[in-house]
């Protein structure tokens, strides 16, 4: 039997990246986890979840990188104590205060280095349509451009595909696929504000709760409150 192809997966500890892990495995890849702590409010909880997920799938490797420069740069409510985490506004078309300037380019750059060093043929990221409505570095055009950066900036014999499998999907679509794949969502965390229990009112909690509510499923993590966000 031939050796499985390897994939670096950006694993934040959240439900989208956890689903991306199971999607990559379902496609036949051996998972190499890359988790970064960048000074976000729930960094310790996210690392705990990422490690639990790595254990669940028997990941080939787990690389944890501190990217404190993103917190030092600031200008995001995820990293700057002077900025409040906003309550959910699911209909907003603006860029939310939780946007970390050019974060995905930073993370993907590390993922490319990690992938090239470990002969990985793919990088998976769990970004999706509700992300790119607010975050410019989650747009399909961004990933297409970054693929060009990978192709030009790596060794001639290196061939790494950047895979964003959910980029045109809603959060509900992702949750539905994850439940189908058996993703242990109890080992994921999405809250921008608190690390136990989840607040239930920030954007990340709202989109997550809405996805489970749309599917008639109960989100297995603990919340301080569970408002109704269902849209169908």
Explain this structure to me?
The chain has a five-stranded parallel beta sheet, sandwiched between helices. By secondary structure, it is an alpha/beta fold. Helix content is 38%, strand content 11%. It is globular. It has eight helices and five strands, in the order E-H-E-H-E-H-H-E-H-H-E-H-H. This is 7-cyano-7-deazaguanine synthase. It comes from Halapricum hydrolyticum. It catalyses: 7-carboxy-7-carbaguanine + NH4(+) + 2 ATP = 7-cyano-7-carbaguanine + 2 AMP + 2 diphosphate + 2 H(+). Catalyzes the ATP-dependent conversion of 7-carboxy-7-deazaguanine (CDG) to 7-cyano-7-deazaguanine (preQ(0)).
Jot down its keywords:
Rossmann-like_a/b/a_fold, 8 helices, Rossmann fold, alpha/beta, five-stranded parallel sheet, 232 residues, single chain, QueC, zinc ion binding
Unreliable stretches? none
Total strands: the figure is: 5
Query: Looking at CATH, which topology would you report?
Result: Rossmann fold
Tally of structural domains = 1
Helix content: 25-40%
Q: What would you give as the CATH superfamily?
A: HUPs
Query: Approximately how much beta-strand content do the residues carry?
Result: 5-15%
Secondary-structure content class: alpha/beta
What's the overall average pLDDT, rounded?
A: 87
Please state the overall shape, judged from the principal axes of the Cα atoms.
globular
**What's the quaternary structure here?**
single chain
Major beta sheet, specifics?
5 strands, parallel
Q: Record the strand order, biggest sheet.
A: 3-2-1-4-5
| SSE string | EHEHEHHEHHEHH
